[in-house]
């Protein structure tokens, strides 16, 4: 096959795939992507860009011994699958690196990460600002009625300015039991009663 004839075929292939704003190339990518779920519009745009790179490589390597459409589809499918695998691997890696705020850090597991985060938010103070004609007492009573005895004891000790490690020592509970109780006490389901 002569270079002139090869150039004409490449030009025809380019025109076919890139006519009407790369409609045929996008349809090919869409056919591959429909096998995968959970892709956003940004993901699709990323894969269209990737398809342009693959197309440029495929047209250089095309040997005219097989149909171009099948060769392109195969190469695109392999590249997209590799990219999705890479993205999923990165997500799993990020998940493994995530740390819960309730994980205990510090000397003898006395403090959780939440103890290190500065915050001037006070649930009770905030609720007091929003109370309506004495209804605050009713809201606090409803909040406390949803808590277990251990959680009420923790709440009382927190109000009395005890530190988390002191509360655990007084109530003879483990760091995990304390963290679980605090998570329940701070949960939206319980705290929303106060507002």
UniProtKB/TrEMBL annotation:
It comes from the Bacteria. This is Sigma-70 family RNA polymerase sigma factor.
